[in-house]
Design a protein that fits this description.
Length: 173
Amino acid sequence: MAKALPPLEASPRQRSLVSKRLKQGHLSHRLHQRYALLHGMLEGKSAFSSAKDLGLRADVGIRWYTRWADNQGRLEALEVDCAGKPISDHELGKQMDLVLSDRARSGVKPRITQAQKEQIVALACKKPSDYGLPQGAWTRDTLAQMAMEQKIVDKISPSHVRNILKKSGGTSA
């Protein structure tokens, strides 16, 4: 049988902010759910019971219990700034949000940098005739080909060119 976790700790100020955060309407669904989970655990419920009350798996409750417990000391230290003055509730709340937010995830690094995307958009703003092409307007195919010929990128598909232009707010080729 699993060993029971000790009660979750939080300063009175943190407890008050947890309650306030739950009443705010601008939190994302996930963050609101995590504050609700935390609130239950701070009220004396187990991580399992708090998770079950919210329709979550027990491991989710334990994950956020652990994340909060691991950051509790840091949060308490942050409650007072370097000059010994209390930081604002807003700043402390932002730090609590960070503790309860998803961590950055690793993944495939983008093959095309922001600078390269900007160069492709700039290329699309020029006339094809500036590059010796007979047509009056870019197509996705010719724009992709020209981006590779100009050594902006090693490889790019016409659909990726379209997506870059679309996200930039320009007209797609």
